[in-house]
Design brief:
Layout: H1 2-20, H2 28-37, H3 39-46, E1 48-51, E2 56-59, H4 64-74, E3 78-82, H5 89-103, E4 108-113, H6 116-131, E5 142-145, E6 149-152, E7 157-162, E8 173-177, H7 185-197, E9 201-206, H8 216-226
Parallel strand pairs: 3-9, 4-7, 4-8, 8-9
Antiparallel strand pairs: 1-2, 5-6, 6-7
Helix pairs in contact: 1-2, 2-3, 4-5, 5-6
């Protein structure tokens, strides 16, 4: 009963904010409450992404389809996304990972890509998004920060690996970028299965490897697309 009352109060605060106020807000406590309960609100108002064209960090202006994708991410244990370039799916996935680390701590985010350099790039992006948050939204301290490890004082951490390593970890979220290009995908999926078994999420996102009309990633994607 108390939890239901608390949730109704949160919903009322969100409804009142959206009805009567405009960004920016002057009350960090209200902003924290809203962000913790409204993932698109957090991304739309506080997350910046790197624009390679302007070579600068810009606010993440969400399209309606991207907002719907964020909601799908929040409610999916396993997600397979065939992406087109420049649609921002990797950035969306990282924004969701950042939200988990801040508002669902302690969270462990595992970032995988075919090569370690690309996984490091994902971590660099995630760290860059965090650095541009207001100080009151950040964790009290960054306990560790290097090219492959990033640990916050709230217990959350993000780790970057090539798909050949890091498989012994159990994460809150395992994000595999350019998954269609990962050889031996079946073995990799078996290795990260404990993440799903432990209640975590697995996101496979990728452009299409056109040199392989048939692949594990495509076989996972096609039934979901048809259904």
């Amino acid at each position: 009963m108390e939890r239901d009352v608390h949730q109704r109060r949160i919903s009322l605060a969100i409804d009142n904010y959206h009805s009567h106020f405009s960004f920016p807000m002057t009350d960090p406590r209200l902003a924290w409450l809203l962000c913790s309960q409204d993932l698109p609100f957090f991304v739309r108002n506080f997350v910046f992404i790197y624009d390679a064209t302007t070579q600068d960090w810009v606010r993440f202006e969400l399209w309606p389809a991207q907002e719907r994708t964020l909601q799908t991410m929040a409610h999916s244990r396993k997600l397979v996304v065939l992406k087109a370039r420049q649609l921002g799916i990797s950035w969306l996935s990282l924004a969701y990972a950042l939200w988990l680390m801040l508002f669902r701590s302690p969270a462990t985010v595992l970032l995988f890509s075919l090569r370690e350099a690309e996984a490091k790039e994902l971590l660099w992006r995630l760290h860059g998004m965090y650095d541009r948050l207001p100080p009151w939204m950040q964790a009290e301290r960054v306990m560790l920060a290097n090219e492959t490890r990033w640990v916050l004082s709230n217990g959350s951490r993000a780790l970057a690996f090539s798909t050949k390593s890091g498989r012994s970890y159990t994460g809150t979220l395992a994000l595999v970028d350019e998954a269609d290009f990962v050889p031996e995908m079946n073995q990799f999926l078996n290795a990260v299965k404990p993440t799903i078994d432990g209640g975590g999420q697995l996101f496979l996102v990728s452009t299409s490897d056109k040199s392989r009309p048939v692949s594990v990633f495509k076989n996972l994607f096609r039934p979901r697309w048809r259904g």
